[in-house]
Amino acid sequence: MALVEERKSTTLSMEELTRFIYAHAYSETPLERIREIREKMAKIPELSLTVNRYYDTREQSLKRALLFGNAWVTMIKKEKLNHEELQIAYENSFELTAHIAHITFFVPSLILQADNDQLREWMPLCETMEMVGCYAQTELGHGSDVRGLEIQATYDHLSKSFILHSPTITATKWWIGALGCAANHALVIAQLYINGTCYGPHPFLVPIRDIKTHMPYDGVDVGDIGPKIGFHSNDNGFLRFNNYRIPKKYMLTRFSKINDTGDYEIIDPNSIKILYLSLVRARLFILADAWFPLSSALTIAIRYSIIRKQFADNEKPGTEKKIIDYQIQQNKLFVMLSRLFAFLFVRVPINNMYFKIEKEVTSGKSPSLDILHCLVCLYKVYASSKVLEAIETCRRACGGHGYSMLSGIPSLYTTFLPKVTYDGDNNILSLQVIKYLVSLFHKKSPKEFAYITGAKITPTGDVHSSSFQQQCFMAVAQYKVNRVNKHFQELKTRFTKEKIWNSLLQVEGIEATEPVFHAHIHQCFIDTIDKLPNGTNKDALECLRKIYVASEIEKYSGILMNCGVKYETFETIQQDSVHALSLVRPNALGLIEAFELKDEALHSILGRKDGDVYNQMFQNVKTQNPINKTKVLPGLLDYLRPKI
Amino acid sequence: MALVEERKSTTLSMEELTRFIYAHAYSETPLERIREIREKMAKIPELSLTVNRYYDTREQSLKRALLFGNAWVTMIKKEKLNHEELQIAYENSFELTAHIAHITFFVPSLILQADNDQLREWMPLCETMEMVGCYAQTELGHGSDVRGLEIQATYDHLSKSFILHSPTITATKWWIGALGCAANHALVIAQLYINGTCYGPHPFLVPIRDIKTHMPYDGVDVGDIGPKIGFHSNDNGFLRFNNYRIPKKYMLTRFSKINDTGDYEIIDPNSIKILYLSLVRARLFILADAWFPLSSALTIAIRYSIIRKQFADNEKPGTEKKIIDYQIQQNKLFVMLSRLFAFLFVRVPINNMYFKIEKEVTSGKSPSLDILHCLVCLYKVYASSKVLEAIETCRRACGGHGYSMLSGIPSLYTTFLPKVTYDGDNNILSLQVIKYLVSLFHKKSPKEFAYITGAKITPTGDVHSSSFQQQCFMAVAQYKVNRVNKHFQELKTRFTKEKIWNSLLQVEGIEATEPVFHAHIHQCFIDTIDKLPNGTNKDALECLRKIYVASEIEKYSGILMNCGVKYETFETIQQDSVHALSLVRPNALGLIEAFELKDEALHSILGRKDGDVYNQMFQNVKTQNPINKTKVLPGLLDYLRPKI
Ligand SMILES: Cc1cc2nc3c(=O)[nH]c(=O)nc-3n(C[C@H](O)[C@H](O)[C@H](O)COP(=O)(O)OP(=O)(O)OC[C@H]3O[C@@H](n4cnc5c(N)ncnc54)[C@H](O)[C@@H]3O)c2cc1C
Ligand SMILES: Cc1cc2nc3c(=O)[nH]c(=O)nc-3n(C[C@H](O)[C@H](O)[C@H](O)COP(=O)(O)OP(=O)(O)OC[C@H]3O[C@@H](n4cnc5c(N)ncnc54)[C@H](O)[C@@H]3O)c2cc1C
Questions:
Q1: What is the CB neighbour count within 10 angstroms for residue A377?
Q2: Please, what's the largest Cα pairwise distance for chain A?
Q3: If you take atom 38 of ligand 2, which residue's CA is the nearest one?
Q4: Is the pTM of this model over 0.95?
Q5: Chain B hits for A328, Cβ within 8 Å
Q6: Same domain, A237 and A284
Q7: Which of B69, B426, B627 has the CB atom closest to A58's CB atom?
Q8: Residue B283 and residue B256 share a domain
Q9: How far is A359 from chain B (nearest CA, A)?
């Protein structure tokens, strides 16, 4: 009811907004096709997960994931989905299950690192999933530091084979997705030894379980690493080798190989760029991946905030106030809504940059990857941390019910959580960003960062304008990075670079990256809105932009005053934002429903499209909760009363 | 090894520090007694939970909790623990299980609300736990707004009984701890109806399950509300009544009753203060409760950061660097360590205030509860949100392994998580705080907040000093609250109070509470350190104070510059903090191990006292993980390969 009314009263042009959104989410796929794929998926029972999965035990969860994965692969093959369509089909999968990991991570890694002969042999097996793979890099003792890996692949020229061995407990591969139960092959990164010399980490495709029986081979110790805060449906696994032999052909030889005389040979010294690019691509995926869980959390929280009423509304006696009508609730939700659009709008520019460079690399050129790498790290860091915070804000905005798995938000949170850690720990990536930015003071800056090393910015113009506000972010970024550079130059006369970046400038350096991120994302926000025709859609997004700015700028007020901005400016920006909240309010539901997320993808009772929250909550708990199968919990009376 | 060396090299006076800490954690209990209770608990197998509990299914988890609770109650009765000792014994319980909830929440609520005759009848049953109770206030439709509760208790004078009824789905009691399986009685808050008139929410003790068989009575629909992000071992439950009759004696009649002629009667109009005080007490408990999970998370993260090495240390060739030696890791952990001490030090002053007022109330006086209520709300809000953030920071500081339940940190997080919501949603409490603070402009401020309505503060003195820094927090608090007051006075001429606090000033008002919190907690920090004799302990804590200030002050730099502080001041404070990190580093382990948390209370492999992290992780997963019981997950091969 409440939802139906709100839908009617929106002033947005919904279809136009949806088109606009999806032009940014999936730039190659028309909206009709996106809708078609989602419809199809919603009709396949194994793919339409319901909230009932939240009752699963770990083992049930693993099984459900396999069933899901199986149906998923069947669908994408049957429908012959292309790369981007695959991403659409991946949206409403719940976690990175074995099949998905195989197709989206393992196979691309293999394609990248294997040579053509190897691919000719293995790709058909990957296609049928007779070969199920996983990417095994991290060990119990080393994650961030890949050079520190301990697992050994020792070449034996006599038998033309490698002996794989895990010399210590810390050498145990750990955390490897899909390894615990599902994979029968692992792309193992191991230290290559030839004649007693170590050549550093290299990739091997290692058969670990029998393709037919799935039994682990002798010399292979493999299993699941146990309970986690999320990712219950993924069998993150461990792997140890005890002098386990594999034929020479299993070394992945696109970049380097062992030649017929048994010597190490680098095939293409420039090819390292390709490897590097694949890392960049994995991180780009986190950005690509961010809008979906955040739009899910917001769909749930905004819908529920319209349905939920709390406290008598003395302005309309006899009624209760919808919680979305409280200013603080609006502030929480609309700040996060503005973040959602910000992260969405940045995708096209970054993707374009990536594809341009990828094209150059694959056509044999050798462009600089630095700026791309820097931006992608920046977005990996802030997309992961800021989206997490946003999901949690949505969860809290649902009050007590947000703590129930049935709300759908906790699992969005725990699934997204490891992104701050994997594909490059956020601290380590931030450090790479600031090191790069500091290096710009000694070479020509790319246009994206020219302002950092350029003339001092003193924000001018109308304080209400996006241009003034953009100058503010840039001024802060400039100030902070310049200060880091100044300190770096001072310290360099006395300390090694290593000492400086490990022990003296890490805190200041990492802190300087956040305004750089804001300056970039806010510019994309401006540019994207600019392209819209005038109208209510544009107005609504401009309101969100103002809300975004207000939520991120005040913490920099000191620096900005140092750059000549008056304190009252922040009060003005704050007032603009508060005013914008009331303008966004009537269109809040429209702004999030323009994403058209389906119930089948939300797995949430609070976020149901029909708004039937309370009935369904009660019915679900009555009929699905295994704890309620018996009237008295078996054994309970034996433990309830202390025997004293 | 690494831990042993660090322990040897600390410059702290450990025993003295421990005494100092526990004088703040448990002001009435000598350290020897605390150690004794912990020792005793560690020896009782059911109470010494191990990490193996993280493998439990929901049902196993409920059973383990009952076993735990049973042993716990047996112990506290056998040892005749007093009130504070009970809190010590409650530390290393994992969640608020049924037995603990019965003793720490239900029984005190009953004592508060029942009259003496009622208590004479029921207390013996509570003691033996023949009566197991829960506190049932929240409904599916109403939590924050207690007046909006729907469940009805209609008095029938003829039969001298109440008819309990849940007229709608939203009237279903929901979220009630220990109700789902364990409780046989519920302290139900229901709307009292007499002769068609509603008298508002009143408390009833309702028998819901048979004491002997534990079967729910006819007319009672009760069960568990299903999966949650944490609290797996608690049977949060739902409850509905279908015209269920209970005798009149079950209305709790300390504050009001129905007299012999069937009329409503208030017993003691002043007694509402007692009820109010009980709310305050529950919130105080969240503060009391905060240091333990945070010290647990920090024990785990600091120990692990000393054991964990990552990246070659080129300054000492052939070795790897301990992650605790990276500046950013220090910043993360030591900021949170400073927070831990801050929250610890504030307990004595707040407790003293509480006990003084409690004494006055129970001795018949009628002191003002306002200032206590305000401070307790403030601390409830910030103890819950800031400690949560701190626990999560510790988790991320452990890299990938922090995502494993076996690290012990995820369950600390999810158990603490609902505290932002229950015992008063944080937003609503913040609103009460700011309303109270604004009211001070029209009456005499209590000494704690006199500065807010007093003369304008312009921080002066040595910027390195605690006194200057305290003036800064006070200046910000003063500025922000005054601004809210100014806006409030302006708006009051045009709008109703309700409109102002719901729709116009909520955001600004709630934001103004944080600096008030900092000003108060930082003053306690200063006062507490002052009492220490000069020496390394005092020096270390003074370093932590500096780190605390730096971590919280920069966001206010704009306001402070507006109050006359120079921008360079913040750079100085930042530099002091960075310097303090390096001074704290050698004593980091000592500072947290002075809390003397036992392995039996940590439930963590990363945080083991013996530092045997990697072996134990591997062994545990090999031997305890049920998924590894079979070499091939049953049914796996049926689902692995898509059939196309
Ligand atoms: C759910 C999940 C799935 C995963 N899936 C896979 C997979 O499929 N395949 C795979 O190979 N791996 C996988 N991983 C592992 C993941 O890639 C690593 O956890 C990640 O690389 C971080 O490494 P680490 O855990 O060793 O952290 P560490 O490097 O040990 O970091 C611990 C702490 O030290 C800090 N630190 C470390 N070095 C520095 C430095 N130089 N300066 C400052 N601070 C520093 C970090 O910031 C962090 O706070 C997965 C992990 C998770 C949680
Ligand atoms: C783990 C857990 C255990 C619990 N145990 C118990 C128990 O044993 N017994 C019991 O009785 N209850 C229990 N509860 C319920 C708990 O007390 C309520 O969840 C809590 O009071 C919040 O109420 P709500 O859920 O109705 O949130 P709501 O009041 O619906 O809040 C939802 C959102 O609306 C916002 N909002 C509401 N009103 C306003 C306003 N006036 N101004 C601005 N914003 C507003 C809130 O800030 C929040 O963001 C438990 C809850 C949990 C999660």
A1: 23
A2: 90
A3: A310
A4: yes
A5: 427, 431, 506-507, 510
A6: no
A7: B627
A8: no
A9: 33
